[in-house]
Design a protein that fits this description.
It catalyses: ATP + protein L-histidine = ADP + protein N-phospho-L-histidine. The chain is an alpha+beta fold and about 160 residues long. It has a single domain, classed as Heat Shock Protein 90 (2-Layer Sandwich), CATH 3.30.565. It contains four helices and five strands. The protein has a five-stranded mixed sheet, with helices on one face. Helix 2 runs parallel beside helix 3 and helix 3 packs antiparallel against helix 4. It is globular. It starts with a helix and ends in a 9-residue tail after the last strand.
Length: about 160
């Protein structure tokens, strides 16, 4: 119970700290997701020494709301943190694919994996973020074979005023 309370407190603290740092920035809707991902990966790799490979496929939407950009950024951030902290990973691969219908984000690592996944606050929080974006989230793991997260989110078109 103490461990669960500690994890919750850390998660809340991280969210509050991140929100304070990032909410003041007004460019969430102006800066595209690919750029945000590249910036996050570069910072994360530098501070943690985790090797992260990244590729984006397909055409990025011309507009993605702050809600989606921020939510996907936080999903990537949480997944990278989990790979380092819980998975003891040395390398992570990130693939962001866009189509006309959906965005798919796959993140997998070479960490320790596990046979029986128990979702802590981090994974539950990640699932809730995906749900807020009307998407689905799947986890795949096996002991000694790393961890994979797949996020699929439908593409939301910007409403155009007709008059």
């Amino acid at each position: 119970m103490m461990k669960t309370s500690e994890e919750l407190a850390r998660s809340i603290y991280r969210d509050i700290r991140f929100s304070i740092e990032e909410n003041d920035r007004s460019n969430w809707a102006e800066t595209d997701l690919d750029t945000k991902f590249r910036q996050l990966i570069q910072k994360f790799s530098r501070f943690t020494k985790l090797e992260v490979s990244y590729e984006a496929k397909g055409s990025l939407p011309s507009f993605m709301s702050r809600k989606y950009t921020f939510g996907l950024y936080r999903i990537l951030q949480e997944t990278l943190t989990n790979a380092k902290r819980h998975g003891d990973a040395k390398s992570v691969w990130v693939r962001l694919c866009f189509s006309a219908e959906q965005l798919q984000l796959d993140i997998w690592d070479d960490g320790i994996g596990c046979d029986h996944l128990q979702k802590g606050f981090g994974l539950k929080n990640l699932q809730n973020r995906v749900k807020e974006l009307n998407g689905t989230c799947s986890f795949f793991t096996e002991k000694g074979k790393g961890f994979k997260t797949r996020v699929v989110i439908p593409v939301v078109q910007r409403e155009v005023a007709h008059g």
